[in-house]
Amino acid sequence: MLELNAVIFDMDGLMIDTEPVGKMLVKTSHEKFGYEITEEMFYHLIGTNEKTSKAYYHSVFGEDYPYQKIKDYRDQLRKEYFNSHPLEVKKGLYDLLENLKKKNIKMAVASSTRYERVLSNLKSIKVDHYFNAIIGGDQIQHGKPAPDIFLKAVELLGVSKEDALVLEDSKNGILAAHAGNIPVICIPDLIHHSKDILDLTVGCYDSLDQLIDVIVKKDDKA
């Protein structure tokens, strides 16, 4: 059992099943401009914000890399895709959110995706009302694997780090929570992480609903 006052959710790959689509869009948008994205490069960037990914692309492809043009084209492709494909929710999300709400456990979303899209996605799957705080990757200076976004979430929720729990699917997210000294649980998505990454967590589960019997509200009087 984990006695907690707050749970902090990642979004892409944890709450909604967007990573396979994201992989396709990254590959397609780069191919249009003559760049090849390997699986290793894509996996390296999972969980990072725009500032971090931009710096990485320039480090790989050079200063002439047309970041904004490729990003704009990818955003266009994403809009077209999701206009005809509804967001798919990860198994157990609704059950876990409702359970945490009944236990009076505070909740936040801390996603590397920019705030505007985070809020739009949460509203699309009708879960925005569950969260006491929502933070996007464009609202913090250093993205994952730096701990900034999770430290901000703890601050906004008004809880101590040891009384909070981060839920993450990505290596960068796990590293960020660990760097912030906040307990983290992994729910793997596209990648099953190596032992050295999983050793940084307090557990690894197949789906979100498996956490219902794991998380309990901390007795503030104890």
Q: What share of residues is helical? A: 40-55%
- Rg calculated over all Cα atoms: 17 Å
Distance from first to last alpha carbon: 16 Å
Low-confidence stretches: none
State the assembly state of the protein chains.
single chain
Describe this structure as you would to a colleague.
The chain is α/β, with parallel strands linked by helices and 222 residues long. The protein has nine helices and eight strands. The protein has helices spanning 19-32, 39-45, 50-61, 67-84, 93-102, 115-124, 148-157, 171-179, 195-198; strands spanning 2-4, 6-9, 106-110, 133-135, 164-168, 184-186, 203-204, 215-217. The strands form two sheets. A six-stranded parallel beta sheet has the order 4-3-2-5-6-7, sandwiched between helices. It has a two-stranded parallel ribbon with strand order 1-8. Strand 5, helix 8 (171-179) and strand 6 (184-186) form a beta-alpha-beta unit. Helix 1 crosses helix 4. The longest helix is centred in the middle third of the chain and has 18 residues, at 67-84.
